[in-house]
Design brief:
Helices cover about 95% and strands about 0% of the residues. The chain starts with a helix and ends with a helix. The chain has 1 helix and no strands. The chain is mostly helical. The longest helix has 27 residues. The protein is rod-shaped. Keywords: Flavoprotein, Oxidoreductase.
Length: about 30
């Protein structure tokens, strides 16, 4: 149960990081 929660949290975190990176690159351009 806890492992699944951590897995979900990591997936959400990855999405946020990728989204922030794309937004930052777009803003830089």
């Amino acid at each position: 149960m806890k492992r699944d929660w951590l897995k979900g949290a990591k997936s959400a975190y990855d999405v946020v990081v990728i989204g922030s990176g794309l937004a930052g690159m777009t803003a830089a351009n």
